[in-house]
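Hi all, long-time lurker, first post. I run a small reading group and we've been trying to get comfortable going from sequence to structure in the token notation. Rather than ask abstract questions, I figured I'd post a concrete chain and ask someone more experienced to write out its structure so we can walk through it together at our next meeting. Sequence below, copied exactly:
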Amino acid sequence: MTMFKNNKITNLLAIKYPLIQAGMIWTSGWKLASTVSNAGGLGIIGAGSMYPDVLEEHISKCQKATQNPFGVNVPMLYPDIDKIMQIIVDKNVKIVFTSAGNPKTFTPYLKSNGIKVIHVVSSVKFALKAQQAGVDAVVAEGFEAGGHNGREETTTFTLIPMVKKEIDIPLIAAGGIGNGQAMLATMVLGADAVQIGTRFVVSHEASSHINFKQKVVDIKEGETQLTLKELAPVRLIKNKFYNDIQQLYKKSPSKEDLQKLLGRARAKKGMFEGDLDEGELEIGQISGLIDSISPAKNIVNEIIEEFKTAQQKVCDI
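-- Answer (accepted) --
Happy to help. Here is the structure in token form:
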């Protein structure tokens, strides 16, 4: 297939399709990452929910399961970052996606070890800072995305052309992208590739709990909301925990009050252990369009076929 032969991201990362599976906590283990990479996209291991020794195990298993490139996503707000970065270098991982932190902190170290670095941003301001830090590309993630999000509430449709106008490095679009039509739309707006999370949450290979996967399939438009902006903005499914947050807001809570309600391991309880009432269920707005749990390979193939069909339709207009 030669349709992406001049694509900046496929050339940068040595992958077949400009389609990247997001590195999501409690969801993106080695099984999902290796399957997506074997299907022609870029699979990513989500290190945010892993202790260093667990990450090392996932990297080893992924290296055995695929000969194709894969990456590791590292949210820099978590502990043991120095250990995690050292493991990535020692295990000869070639692609790292960083997020939730200053890209200047580790980009020089990673690049000096021959690693491609892509940083996730939510605004033009942070895209420029990432470019100045020397990253190889940025992921511009819109307000529609699941999980931790930007405070600006800028939608993907708005964010992508604004970032494209200001940066010189390759641009990956994320947030609200769940099919080939959306992939084409973001690339028309200036993106070189897409990063997709929510649709891969409901893949067979995702390590998320079946209760959570089924909940994502069942919810409709309007059943997610961005909240907890005082701590770190996060898009959640409206469940009992979400409603508890809203009740607390009526009392004008302090940050400490919100942190106490959030507690520890709330995301693990929901997404990994399947507690749909008390868990933090992070998912994107595009979940309202998803209606099945599928093999990750099929998801990649469907998105690429949808992209090709949509591209042809546009050409026929």
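A couple of things your group might point at:
The longest strand covers residues 70-75.
The first helix runs from residue 8 to 13.
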